[in-house]
């Protein structure tokens, strides 16, 4: 990762930054692949799930055959009360690193640089960590400490973590459940419909009804494009076209300067 000072100068104010949000297995990675194909000049940062499945000690990049220290995703699903706090520290750290990465390319003249992240430091807190606390898997002590360092980091990196918009992929939890089963990721074998219903409600509270209390007004005011992905768009070019047109119009409507800082705390 670049130094704080270097990344501050490289990230500030350049282009438009979006995050794709949505329930587990709603189709974010699939949709992001579609975005890459439709807008090859956009920079896309996938969620680093493979790093969570094989946590490696810090240092020079380990050989890909090294076993790592364990599968944190699996540990979190198997023993949520033991591993959720650890998981949230690591998932948030990886999202922070991704959002602070300097822009990898310079946009050509007259072209807006668009960066798309799969989930964000915001969903880490306002969807997953919040839900784990409400479900009793994060102790009050852990939730209070998580929020303390989360808010501190947002303030420390003020401006650099701003997003100009959210693409919220929405489908009923039952549809996500079917897709999750169809995908068959081994760690998710025990995931129940109830968990997806809870996560659906957290997304709705945060991005639609705005019932979730957030650390800043800026985050609350960040525009949200709601995309209905209940239908199978994978093998339907007309459905794909419809979704992509909505994204294009939304991105064009965003002004890099128009929105107050999502990372500045309100206090
Ligand atoms: N619109 C769709 N219709 C039918 N199947 C879909 C659709 N979108 C994705 N899928 C399938 O659903 C499964 C989950 O999709 P994907 O991996 O893109 O979800 P995700 O939201 O990125 O998941 P996660 O939350 O775990 O990161 C995959 O098997 C994919 O092929
Ligand atoms: N607890 C928890 N907190 C997160 O911030 C988070 N982000 C993603 N996930 C889980 C969902 C998929 O199984 C898998 C891939 O998205 O990882 C998370 N789980």
TrEMBL record:
<dbReference type="Pfam" id="PF01712">
    <property type="entry name" value="dNK"/>
</dbReference>
<comment type="subunit">
    <text>Homodimer.</text>
</comment>
<feature type="binding site">
    <location>
        <position position="124"/>
    </location>
    <ligand>
        <name>substrate</name>
    </ligand>
</feature>
<keyword id="KW-0067">ATP-binding</keyword>
<dbReference type="InterPro" id="IPR002624">
    <property type="entry name" value="DCK/DGK"/>
</dbReference>
<dbReference type="GO" id="GO:0004138">
    <property type="term" value="F:deoxyguanosine kinase activity"/>
</dbReference>
<dbReference type="InterPro" id="IPR027417">
    <property type="entry name" value="P-loop_NTPase"/>
</dbReference>
<dbReference type="InterPro" id="IPR050566">
    <property type="entry name" value="Deoxyribonucleoside_kinase"/>
</dbReference>
<feature type="binding site">
    <location>
        <position position="88"/>
    </location>
    <ligand>
        <name>substrate</name>
    </ligand>
</feature>
<feature type="active site" description="Proton acceptor">
    <location>
        <position position="118"/>
    </location>
</feature>
<dbReference type="GO" id="GO:0005739">
    <property type="term" value="C:mitochondrion"/>
</dbReference>
<feature type="binding site">
    <location>
        <position position="47"/>
    </location>
    <ligand>
        <name>substrate</name>
    </ligand>
</feature>
<protein>
    <recommendedName>
        <fullName>deoxyguanosine kinase</fullName>
        <ecNumber>2.7.1.113</ecNumber>
    </recommendedName>
</protein>
<feature type="binding site">
    <location>
        <position position="77"/>
    </location>
    <ligand>
        <name>substrate</name>
    </ligand>
</feature>
<feature type="binding site">
    <location>
        <position position="119"/>
    </location>
    <ligand>
        <name>substrate</name>
    </ligand>
</feature>
<keyword id="KW-0418">Kinase</keyword>
<feature type="binding site">
    <location>
        <begin position="22"/>
        <end position="30"/>
    </location>
    <ligand>
        <name>ATP</name>
    </ligand>
</feature>
<feature type="binding site">
    <location>
        <position position="188"/>
    </location>
    <ligand>
        <name>substrate</name>
    </ligand>
</feature>
<feature type="binding site">
    <location>
        <begin position="179"/>
        <end position="183"/>
    </location>
    <ligand>
        <name>ATP</name>
    </ligand>
</feature>
<dbReference type="InterPro" id="IPR031314">
    <property type="entry name" value="DNK_dom"/>
</dbReference>
<comment type="similarity">
    <text>Belongs to the DCK/DGK family.</text>
</comment>
<dbReference type="GO" id="GO:0005524">
    <property type="term" value="F:ATP binding"/>
</dbReference>
<feature type="domain" description="Deoxynucleoside kinase">
    <location>
        <begin position="18"/>
        <end position="252"/>
    </location>
</feature>
<keyword id="KW-0808">Transferase</keyword>
<keyword id="KW-0547">Nucleotide-binding</keyword>
């Amino acid at each position: 990762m670049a130094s704080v000072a270097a990344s501050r100068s490289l990230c500030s104010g350049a282009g438009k930054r979006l995050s794709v949000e949505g329930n587990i297995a709603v189709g974010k990675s699939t949709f992001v692949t579609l975005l890459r194909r439709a807008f090859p000049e956009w920079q896309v940062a996938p969620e680093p799930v493979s790093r969570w499945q094989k946590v490696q000690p810090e240092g020079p990049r380990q050989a890909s055959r090294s076993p790592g220290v364990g599968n944190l995703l699996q540990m979190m699903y198997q023993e949520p009360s033991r591993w959720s706090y650890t998981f949230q520290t690591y998932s948030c750290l990886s999202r922070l690193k991704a959002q602070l990465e300097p822009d990898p390319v310079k946009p050509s003249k007259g072209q807006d640089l668009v960066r798309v992240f799969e989930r964000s430091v915001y969903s880490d807190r306002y969807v997953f960590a919040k839900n784990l606390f409400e479900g009793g898997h994060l102790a009050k002590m852990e939730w209070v400490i998580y929020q303390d360092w989360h808010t501190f980091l947002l303030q420390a990196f003020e401006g650099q973590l701003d997003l100009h918009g959210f693409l919220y992929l929405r489908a009923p939890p039952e549809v996500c459940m079917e897709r999750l089963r169809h995908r068959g990721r081994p760690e998710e074998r025990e995931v129940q419909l109830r968990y997806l219903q809870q996560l659906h409600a957290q997304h709705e509270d945060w991005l639609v009804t705005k019932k979730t209390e957030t650390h800043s007004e800026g985050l609350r005011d960040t525009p949200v494009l709601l995309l209905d992905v209940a239908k199978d768009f994978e093998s339907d070019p007309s459905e794909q076209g419809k979704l992509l047109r909505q994204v294009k119009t939304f991105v064009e409507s965003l002004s890099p300067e128009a929105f107050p800082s999502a990372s500045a705390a309100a206090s």
